[in-house]
Each structure stands twice: as C-alpha cells, then as structure tokens.
Design brief:
Oligomer: single chain
Low-confidence stretches: none
Number of helices: 6
Shape: elongated
Number of strands: 0
Helix content: 40-55%
Strand content: under 5%
C-alpha cells in the first residue's frame, strides 16, 4: 500500500475494494446475478432439435417476442412450456369434438384442467403473463396518483 499513499485516487480505490457489507447476506441478494456474468450478446436461444415443427414455431414466436437474453438459463422451462401449451391446445380441440355424455369426457376434462394449470405456472415463471410485469403499486387505468 506504500505506492497508493502518494496517489489519492488509487488509495481510495484500494479502500473501496476492501469494504464489505456487514452482517448476513439476504436471500434476495443471493439471487442477484452479477452484471459481469450477463452477456447480452448471447441473443435468443435456438429451439432444441427434439421439438416438432409446431413446437419450434411457438418457440420462435416466444423468443422473438422478448428481448435477447430474456430466457437465458431457463431454456428447459421454456421447452416444457412450449410442449405443455401445445398439449393444452390439442386437448381443447378434443374437448370440442367430444360429447359431455362420453365416458372419457370427464377424464379428458380433468387432464385438460391440470395441464392448463401447469402451463400457467410455467408462463408465470417465465414472466410471460402481464401480471408478472406490472407493479401492484401503480394504477393501470386512468391517471397516475398525485404525490
């Protein structure tokens, strides 16, 4: 530190680098990704080869509807969402063709409800729903409150 005593800027930067926050590290602080680990040049993830053509189209539609890097680290969840969303659509088509008097109608209806709930849960985790992007404290209709 002898050479930094003469240079006040280097001395200050040395002191700043040696400071630490006191106390425990919160759970919220542990979930923060450091800025140097985020590479915005990564772009959008490519669709896995195991997806069908309809699933690839939905994958591309979702990845191009968000900014690059939105799904980084969540590609597996996105893949699960894509397959689940298409399964929900197929079940809805089967429900439209089936009669409520059919023996398998109730089973198909229950399976549809469970699969739709899973798709919704995955969409929330991927922040695809409007409620995950809105702040509860700001009004969505009308004028902003006076402060």
């Amino acid at each position: 530190m002898a050479e930094t005593d003469d240079d006040p800027i280097a001395s200050w930067q040395y002191r700043i680098g040696s400071l630490r926050k006191r106390g425990r590290i919160s759970g919220a602080a542990l979930t923060v990704v450091p800025a140097d680990e985020i590479d915005i040049r990564l772009g959008r993830p490519e669709a896995p080869a195991r997806l069908s053509e309809a699933e690839r189209q939905l994958w591309d539609k979702l990845t191009f509807s968000r900014r690059p890097g939105w799904f980084s680290g969540a590609e597996e969840i996105l893949e699960s969402y894509v397959t689940t969303a298409l399964q929900v659509q197929q079940m809805e088509a089967a429900l439209r063709q089936a009669s409520p008097l059919d023996a398998d109608y109730r089973t198909l209806l229950r399976l549809h409800r469970q699969t739709a709930a899973l798709a919704l849960s995955l969409a929330v985790r991927l922040r695809l729903t409007p409620s995950t992007k809105l702040d509860r404290r700001t009004p969505q209709d009308g004028e902003l409150p006076l402060t």
